[in-house]
UniProtKB/TrEMBL annotation:
It comes from Solanum bulbocastanum. It is a multi-pass membrane protein. Sphingolipid-delta-4-desaturase required for the biosynthesis of delta-4-unsaturated sphingolipids and derivatives. CDD domains: Delta4-sphingolipid-FADS-like. InterPro entries: DES1/DES2, FA_desaturase_dom, Sphingolipid_d4-desaturase_N. Its EC number is 1.14.19.17. Keywords: Endoplasmic reticulum, Lipid metabolism, Membrane, Oxidoreductase, Transmembrane, Transmembrane helix. It is found in: Endoplasmic reticulum membrane; Membrane. It comes from the Eukaryota. GO terms for biological process: ceramide biosynthetic process. Belongs to the fatty acid desaturase type 1 family. DEGS subfamily. The lineage of its organism: Eukaryota, Viridiplantae, Streptophyta, Embryophyta, Tracheophyta. Residues 15-53 form the Sphingolipid delta4-desaturase N-terminal domain. This is Sphingolipid delta(4)-desaturase DES1-like. It catalyses: an N-acylsphinganine + 2 Fe(II)-[cytochrome b5] + O2 + 2 H(+) = an N-acylsphing-4-enine + 2 Fe(III)-[cytochrome b5] + 2 H2O.
């Protein structure tokens, strides 16, 4: 692969990136998908919805909503503790369930997945499931493409977040950057489904406040906020595509938190085969191990966060970018 634009400047003896990594080849997943399928066509049998997705999502949604009502008169300290050590895991699980549903991996009918996504959105407290799908599918079709892939930090973020303190704050607030970046850089006009998502979510929030009070709603919002910041599960935001070595732009994680995150850690496998549900992604690596064993992977998302903050050569600029190619991947 050809790389350019690795402009560096010296700061106290450490080389700091002041531009993204630029690639002049297409993203690697489409070509690897073709190679694997030509050698292991049986992988196509893994395509299709997860038949247990609805039950798994329903269980987490009901448990989290019940927890919110249970804490309606708890102290703020108790709410914060429960939100960080319990609710954050549930809400992040639901965020990644919405990711799964954006690929239509619960039902064969896209509309049913969209409705389930709106349902999964309820404990998160903020309407996002419909909008997320719009931008996330572009991340797959145009990985790293300048101006299209909104998973990549903005120039402003990259120029401001340059030291340990700034990176720590950025990690704490990364969910806000992740959510609002596309709305500022590449806004899409809302449609009927966004209105439905917005209306149902605000109705649930209003009902929560009316029947159980502000503390119940605050618990849900806190669970979302802390679960997307300085939190072990949030390490996947960084581990997936932040470049720690220029030769690789997507990284997998093979640790125990995959159990709680719809196996999103199998990220090379997911980008290679986005039509395979998370519950079966491990089988891709088992069937075609030679394509993944030589790729760098992680065993700890917490360690990834630590590395990102403390390594002074790594920051928001540590992402692969490319110009739009006429051969851009058009499949999910």
């Amino acid at each position: 692969m050809g790389f350019e634009g690795e402009k560096r400047e010296e700061e106290e003896g450490v080389r700091m990136a002041n531009d993204f990594f630029w690639s002049y080849t297409d993203e690697p997943h489409a070509s690897r998908r073709r190679q694997i399928l030509s050698q292991y066509p049986q992988i196509k049998h893994l395509f299709g919805p997860d038949p247990f997705a609805f039950l798994k999502i329903s269980g987490v949604v009901l448990l989290q909503l019940w927890t919110a009502t249970f804490l309606h008169d708890a102290t703020w300290l108790k709410i914060l503790i429960v939100a960080y050590f319990f609710g954050s895991f549930l809400n992040h699980n639901l965020f990644l369930a919405i990711h799964e549903l954006s690929h239509n991996l619960a039902f064969s009918t896209p509309t049913y997945n969209r409705w389930l996504g709106i349902f999964a959105n309820l404990p998160i407290g903020v309407p996002m499931s419909v909008t997320f799908q719009k931008y996330h599918l572009e991340h797959h079709r145009f990985q790293g493409v300048d101006g299209i892939d909104m998973d990549i930090p903005s120039q402003t973020e990259a120029h401001v977040v340059k030291n340990v303190l700034a990176k720590s704050i950025w990690v704490i607030l990364q969910l806000f950057f992740y959510a609002f970046r596309p709305l500022f850089l590449k806004p899409k006009p809302p449609g009927v489904w966004e209105f439905i998502n917005f209306t149902i979510q605000l109705s649930l929030d209003g009902a929560m406040v009316y029947f159980w009070g502000w503390k119940s709603l605050a618990y849900l919002i806190l669970s979302t906020f802390v679960g997307g910041g300085m939190h072990p599960m949030a390490g996947h935001f960084i581990s997936e595509h932040y470049v720690f070595k220029p030769e690789q732009e997507t990284y997998s994680y093979y640790g125990p938190l995959n159990f709680m995150t719809w196996s999103v850690g199998y990220h090379n496998e997911h980008h290679d085969f986005p039509r395979i549900p998370g519950s079966k992604l491990y089988k891709v690596k088992e069937i075609a191990p030679e394509y993944y064993e030589n790729l760098d992977a992680y065993k700890s998302w917490s360690q990834v966060i630590y590395m990102y903050i403390m390594d002074r050569t790594v920051g928001p600029f540590s992402r692969m970018k490319r110009k739009l190619s006429t051969k851009a991947n058009k499949s999910e």
